[in-house]
What we know:
It holds the Pfam family Pyridoxal_deC. The chain is α/β, with parallel strands linked by helices. It folds into three domains: 19-93; 148-410, Type I PLP-dependent aspartate aminotransferase-like (Major domain) (Aspartate Aminotransferase, domain 2), CATH 3.40.640; 413-551, Aspartate Aminotransferase, domain 1, CATH 3.90.1150. It is built from 15 helices and twelve strands. The strands form two sheets. A seven-stranded mixed beta sheet has the order 2-8-7-6-5-3-4, sandwiched between helices. Strands 1-11-12-10-9 form a five-stranded mixed beta sheet. Helix 11 links the parallel strand 6 (285-289) and strand 7. Helix 5 packs across helix 12 (395-431). It is globular and about 75 Å long. 42% of the residues are buried. The structure holds pyridoxal-5'-phosphate (PLP). Pyridoxal-5'-phosphate binds at residues 102, 162-164, 200, 202, 253, 255-257, 289, 291-292, 338, 350.
Amino acid sequence: MPDDDYSKNSVQTFFPSENGNKEERQRFLQLIEQLVAGVDRLKNPEGVNLLGEKQRSDTFYKDLIQTSTIPDDSMKQEEVNERLLNLLHNHPYHSKYFLTNILPMASVPGILGMIAAFLVNGNNLWDVYGPAGAEAEVRVISMMSKLVGYDAAQSGGYTTWGGQGAIFTGLRLAIAKFAPDAPRKGVPGHFYTFCSESAHYSLFKSMEATGLGSDRLIKVRTTPDSAMDVEDLRRKMEQVIANGGVPIYIVATTGTTDAMGIDDVEQILYTASEIAAKHGLQRPHIHADSALGGFFAFFREYDFTANPLEFKPHVLDALQRIQGKMKHLSLADSLCFDFQKLGQTPYLTSLFLVKHADDLRLIDLAEEETPYVGHRGYGEYHTGYTLECSRMASSISIYSALLAFGVKGYQCLLAQFVEVNLAFREALRRDVPQAVIVNDDNPGIVTLFRIYPDGQNGFQAELSGACSLADIERTNRFNEQLFEVLGNQRDRIFFGDTKKHLVVQTREGSSSTLYASKIFVISPYTEVAHVQEIVQYLKQNIDKVFQLHADNLHTIGR
Ligand SMILES: *Cc1c(COP(=O)(O)O)cnc(C)c1O
């Protein structure tokens, strides 16, 4: 790094070597060692956060704004590294007590793939600028296409900005299919889209961003297992058409972010086709939002009878049930694998797949509109259809993870998550009867539970529409107290919560959402052996909330 005397080429020391000399390599590796060792020193498997001090006062961000300026002189990288490590102090880390949400640890293969990409810093805008990324991208698209049952010779896709980016591009495709002029003339106002009440808010955002407006997004009811109620889809599509609208896009969520509800892609396709045909319309584009759940496609070809990986019977059964609901994924026109979720790679590594690569031409730019790229490329690789211009070669990280884990590696990891989750459910049922599991129909990696202030299990009544809005809200507030109690100690064990598990009808005919606490098995370090301790901790805290409640009633009573 630059010394105090600015010799002629000191700026070169900011960069990896040109010629691969050993001295510069060792210096680079030492700097990386400093970071890795620094994080290791902060690790604390008995809590959630890394060690280190962080005082986040009310004026924390304001103070940062006031005190931050670019240093006038260069800083030694060792010192910069210390500052970087300081950023990581007290950072949440994926210890066994990290149970909050779909926020995975980045695996070693995933991180190394990123490093490989950074060492050449190719730009996936064009294969000539980023040949390594392009090669990896074509490979992983083929691998994942075959995994879900797409014909890899017909399918296509690219790495993009998240599951949300995939939903957004699915919508762009849908618009272009129904209005080929739309890319030039704008989007017609009578287009409607559909997703379930449990779907991710990505489509809501995409409606805003494409100019269709979120009022034209129709939310379809869910069944108690958080899957789309296909009969309600039928009704709502008919309604839209009767009012002069055209249904163009349906997002089938195959693995909801909270409850892991799985929409039935086959039924949705069947219903959409039938209604479209009846009205002489084109069938809507169907995007399977498999950002989270799609990874269970790793079990598509698992031999559940021979069970070669020797999963325990209850785990095997759960995996088979999930696989049963997932098996029609390949009927969707497009889908997504968020590798940054269950693919175990760092952000951002999302893969958008289309069943027919030709669809992408609908949203491509003409050659004269992309003057920088596309000429003298190596083949069919051009990316005028991506919303991004420059793109990172995140495909290299995906490639690395797919090779390192292999099908069996992913199967074992997912099965471990499922097994630990089943153990949580069993322990909750046994030791904490006040906690009602509200996504019991969905085996998977998440447990949602809800507590009831009068100690009774009110869940069935809520589902059946027999509860008043006031009752549901009272129970929601009670659960919110548990969120508070657990949230205050989240550096000890980090649970998740949701204020939107299932929309239910109230006795008065209105609707309301149910709040629930969440155990999300996402750390590879959470094992069945840890479940007992974690559930006892939960039990104590749930008892605390009941005690507070009783004290309050007592006070009011007096
Ligand atoms: C996480 C998630 C998304 C959004 O994905 P990002 O990668 O965060 O953009 C969309 N849909 C589902 C079902 C998800 O779980």
